[in-house]
Amino acid sequence: MIKRFAVLCLCLGMLLVSACGSLSGATTAAGTAPGAETLPGNKTAPGTAEETTPVMITTTAAISENPDETVTAGPATAEATTPAAAETTSPDASETEPPAASETVPPETTERISEETTDASAETPVTQVSAETTADGEDETFSEGADTPCEIMAYKPYTGALSSYFLQEGDRIAVISPATLPTRGETNAVLNGLRAWGYVPVEGQYACVASRTLEQCRADLVWALTDPSLKAVFCVRGGYGASEVMDSVSLDLIRSSRKLIVGYSDISVFHAAWSSAGLPSVHASMSRTFTDLPGECAWATRQLMRGMMPVYRCAGSGYDHPGTAEGVLIGGNLATVAAALDTEYDCTALQQPYILFFEEVEEDLEHIHRFLTMLKHWGVLDNAAGIVFGEWVDIPRESETTDGSSRGGAYRSVADMIRRSFFPDADIPVAFGFPAGHGSLNYPLLLGEKVRLQVTSDAFTLEWTD
Predict the structure, then answer these.
(1) CB 13: neighbour CB atoms within 10 A?
(2) Which residue in 150, 249, 316, 368 has its CB near the most CB atoms, within 10 A?
(3) CATH at residue 287
(4) Closest Cα to residue 233, out of 257, 203, 251, 260?
(5) pLDDT at 448
(6) 62 in any annotated domain
C-alpha cells in the first residue's frame, strides 16, 4: 500500500514539473523577442515582443572585400515597418546614407546642406592634432597655427580684370580627382554640396574609378579645361599624384580655359600652374568643405568662389616680423611647391612682387628646413615681398639631426626654427599661423591675385587689393 502511494506521488510530481516548464517557456516567448538586447544583471530591454521584432534592412550596395574597389550604395529599404524601425541601422549605413553635415554655418547663412556626406575618417589624410604619445606620455607629434584666432572683418567684391572669372548660381562645375583616388562618399559630398550652393556639378568620367590609369586622370583634367559649358574645376581630394597629371597640361591651355580651380595639399601644383599662367585659383578644402569643416571656413569658400574677397585679421604668434607689403599671393603646400621649382609651372618665377604662403603636414623639422633651404638657394625667399606661414600639422616631435641643439639651443617650435634659420634679421613682413592647411580650420585663399600683408607686434591682416 505504501509503495503504491509513493509511486502515485512521484507521478503527480513529474506532471507538476512538466506543467511549470511549459508555462515558463510560454512566458519567455511572449516577453522577449529573439535577439533582444540583454541589459546588465540579466535584464532585458523594456518593451513588448511587438516593439522589439527585428526589422530586416536590405540595401542595393555591392560590398567588396577589396578596399580599392568602388562601392556603389543605394538607399536602404525596410521590408517591415514597426516602431523599432527608426532605431535599426544597417552595418553599411555609413556607405548608403552618410551622416549629414554638421551645423557649423554662421547664423547669417540660410541655406543648409542636408544631402549625404562622406565618412570623415576617409576624407582627408589629417584633420586634427595627433593624440599619439610616447611611452613616457609625451605627444609624438605637435601642430602649430591650427587654432590661431582669425576674424573675417569684411567681404569686399573683387574689382580686378577677371571679374567674369568667378561663379554665379547655375554655373556648371567639373568635379575631378587628379591626385589620390577618393571614396564614393567623398565624391558625393562634393556633388551634393555644390548642388546645395546652387551650382550644377558634373562628375568626371574617371573621378572615382578604382581601376583608373594615369592617362584617364589626365583625360578628366583636359575635359574639365576644354569643355566650354564648364565654368570651374572642383577637386575632390589631394594626396599624391597631381604633378604627374599636371605634366600633360600646358600653360597656354590653362590660360585659354579661364576656369577657376579649387583644392589644396597636392593640388598646390595646380595653383602654381594657374599663378604662372596669370590666373587666380582657390586654395581651400575639398570634400571636407561639405562635411566637418567649420561653418565660417565653408561660408568663406562659398563667398570667395563668387568673387567676394574676405579681409582676414589673425592673432600674432610672437615670432612675427612687423611690416607692410603688397604682391601676388602664391604658394600652398611647401613640399609640393618646392618640387615645382624650375619647371614650366614654377610660380616663384613671377616677374613681379609676390607674397609667399606655405603650410605642411607630417614633415619633421629636418624636411621643412630642407625645403626652405632649397627655396633660399633659388632666391625665392630673398625675392619675396612678404611671407605668410600657415598650419604645421602632425609634425613629428623628434628629429635626430635637426633639433637646433647645435644652433644655439633646441628649437621651441617650427616658427622658432624658421625665424632663427632663415629670417634672423628680417627686413620684410613675416607672419606665422594663418589658419589654412591640413588642420581643423582651413580658411580659403585666392592665389594668383594681389594682396596686402600688414604685420604688427600682436596681429596681422591679409586683404586682396584688386
Answers:
(1) 10
(2) 368
(3) 3.40.50.10740
(4) 260
(5) 98
(6) no
* Residue 418: closest CA among 443, 449, 395: 395
Amino acid at 111: E
Residues 6+ positions from 84 with CB-CB distance below 8 Å: 51, 52, 53, 55
Contact assessment for residue 311 and residue 154, using Cβ atoms and an 8 Å cutoff: yes
Would residue 435 count as lying in a domain? yes
Residue by residue, DSSP assigns 54-105 as ---EE------S-TTS-------EESS--GGGGG---TTHHHHSPPPPPS-S
Give the type of residue at 83.
P
Compute the Cα dihedral for 218, 221, 226, 228 and give only its sign: positive
Q: What residues are paired with 144 via a beta bridge?
A: 392
Q: How far apart are CA 281 and CA 265, in angstroms?
A: 13
- Please, are residues 361 and 437 in contact by the beta-carbon 8 Å criterion? yes
8 A C-beta contact, residue 271 and residue 281: yes
Which among 215, 188, 343 has a CA at the least distance from the CA of 270? Answer: 343
User: Does residue 84 sit within a domain?
Assistant: no
d(CA 264, CA 229): 24
- In which residue ranges of the chain is pLDDT below 50? 1-9, 11, 15-132, 134
Beta bridge partners of 333: 359
Q: How far, in Å, CA of 434 to CA of 442, rounded?
A: 9
> What does pTM read for this prediction?
0.73
Residues ≥6 apart with Cβ < 8 Å to 208:
70, 177, 181, 182, 183, 184, 187, 236
C-alpha grid cell, residue 99: 551622416
CA angle 52, 53, 56 (to 5 degrees): 125
Is residue 332 within 8 A of residue 271, CB to CB? The reply is yes
Q: What is the pLDDT of residues 391-432, one digit of tens each?
A: 999 999 887 688 888 888 899 999 999 999 999 999 999 999
